[in-house]
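Letters spell out the chain; backbone shape is given numerically. Both lines appear below:
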Amino acid sequence: MVTSLIKHERIVTTVPKAKELRTLADKVIGYAKKGNMASQQRAMRIIREKPACTKLFDILGPRYEDRDGGYTRVLKLSQTRKGDNAVCVYFDVFVVLLYSFYNLYVILTFILFI
């Protein structure tokens, strides 16, 4: 499941699976932040697919350089799964905002008052 999360950056799963997946995903992204060969080998033990590992170390690792934790996000869906009525969630890799809130405020006020 970690491999699918890295490939697609958003998956739909149940709540217990998402809680378990959060620890593994945070651990793997922490390995990607380090970026050395030992970390890459440790991540390959969990991921097991070379293209997903390449994406992890080339795209996701540099994206979270300045962030200390909280790389993933869980959003509950309003509908349950049809077969067994399980509560489902969107589990995705949190996208870091490029602008600070102050810059966003300045841009929005500039657009609104033109």
